[in-house]
Design a protein that fits this description.
about 260 residues; five-stranded parallel β-sheet; globular; alpha/beta
């Protein structure tokens, strides 16, 4: 592979160690890539508020792809520059499908800045507590549905995906990022890869000039888009089976090892 112009990396389970930190070796490898002229682009399921501190630690600037491709966020200005939310009427239909396929499912909406939760949605992320607001119905708040979250205590994420995917019939993109019992749903055609592709076009970068890293089903499209797409050794079995290139695990600095070989 030629020297990449864009390094597109997932965060949790990929760039970050299991304890949520960025190792010194990984920071140094990202610095080396930047000094060689590559742009580092986080491509994550996280909302903007979940990437700012990590980007500062990693020395990453510029644009970040958040919420599984529904948002492009500018780190310098703290602005959401692009957003692709679910249409409200479509959101209600999706909610009905989820309720039928997964009785008792709890729903939440990621708005880009906050999280709206219904009573049945009990999942809470400790560092996000200030951003949660419980509501009677997430579809009655007139807030952007950047990402719809569906939680089921009685199913794994893989089981939920299998139960729901065929029923959507193109009405939404459904995936998961490895959180037990949680589906992540975006507007039709909104994926990490589609948004990364647009970013690459803006920069005149071809897929063959992109190296990407990921570990979960929501990363599959990005790994397929990139000229070199690496599944982490700790990746979901579907991801490992779908990719030819494998990196060491996130706890073994897998991203750093690959970048050190590419940017000598």
């Amino acid at each position: 592979m030629i020297s990449p112009r864009i390094v597109a990396t997932d965060l949790d389970g990929t760039l970050l160690a299991t304890d949520g930190t960025i190792s010194t070796r990984t920071r140094n490898s990202l610095k080396r890539a930047r000094e060689a002229g590559a742009e580092i682009v986080f491509v994550t399921a996280r909302a903007p508020r979940g990437v700012r501190e990590l980007a500062a630690q990693a020395g990453v600037t510029g644009s970040v792809i958040c919420s599984n491709g529904a948002i492009v966020y500018d780190l310098a200005t703290d602005e959401i520059t692009t957003s692709h939310p679910i249409d409200p009427a479509a959101g209600r239909k999706i909610g009905d499908i989820l309720a039928e396929a997964l009785p008792g499912v709890g729903l939440a909406v990621e708005t880009g800045r906050n999280v709206l939760t219904e009573a049945a949605y009990t999942r809470r992320v400790a560092h996000d507590l200030a951003y949660y607001r419980e509501v009677a119905c997430v579809f009655e708040e007139r807030e952007p549905i950047v990402k719809l979250l569906a939680q089921s205590s009685g199913h794994t994420a893989d089981e939920m995906l299998a139960a729901v995917s065929a029923l959507m019939d193109g009405q939404a993109e459904v995936t998961h990022s490895g959180v037990d019992g949680l589906l992540e749903i975006s507007a039709p055609g909104v994926t990490k890869a589609v948004t990364l592709g647009r970013l690459c076009e803006e920069r005149g970068v071809g897929p063959h000039e992109v190296v990407a890293f990921g570990d979960m089903p929501n990363d599959l499209a990005v790994l397929g888009f990139a000229g070199a797409g690496y599944a982490m050794a700790n990746a979901h079995p579907l991801v490992l089976a779908a990719t030819e290139l494998h990196a060491l695990s996130n706890d073994e600095d897998g991203v750093a090892v690959v970048l050190e070989g590419l940017f000598r």
